[in-house]
Design goal:
1 helix, mainly beta, Lipocalin, 250 residues
Amino acid sequence: MRRWTRSVLGAVVGLLAANLAHAGDVDDLDIFLPTTLEDAFTGEPKEAAAQAGLRFDRRRGHDDLQIFPQFQISPSAGLLLNFSSPYVVGSGERANQGEVSAGALYNFNRETRELPAFALAVDAGTPIGPGDRGTQLQLTGVATRTLDPSAHRRLHLNASWSTRFAPAADERHNRYRFLAGYSQLLDRHTALILDFVREQQERRERDSNVIEIGFRHRLGERVTSGFGAGIGIGKDSPRARVLFSLEVEL
């Protein structure tokens, strides 16, 4: 009887732990899901997800809406593969242009008391639609530091460098993007994200600076939604930004 009771209690505790761990997935951070910030974690092996993000930028003289469908899969521990096809509509120069891209993010280490978690992402994209843009390659370094494991309070740094082969005459050959951010769980089903984005723009405008706030909320066992907003700082930055995302675990 005692053995049976211990077995039942052990199963209940294990189930609760699994549910809590699964609930923690709501604070996984991927670009445009819903903000620009990424974390250094890759999820559990053999997990896959279909994702979609929307980013609307209100600019001086024109508006842009970027549609970001993506498929992610983690074939092994520490490795995350992604396939996406972002597309832009609106009234700006990038309207009706998109890319087909593939990439990978590799996590180098488990986070310790001394070291944050580090990851490196590589993405390559080929343009589709009108325009004379070339193929782009992007490298991103990611660092994540947990401040409070119980609430998943974390600091994040992202640094990206991208190069476009055979760029147009008014297009930058090399660009950078830098992000600093913070995230935490508000409850078991909702996460808060705050970040600052500074990046060189594709054309010859001055660097863009945007402060973003976002929320990820688990709607069901396998469905997570995201909402966000941003405000630009500087003449050539977006005046305002609105973000939405939806993720379905497969």
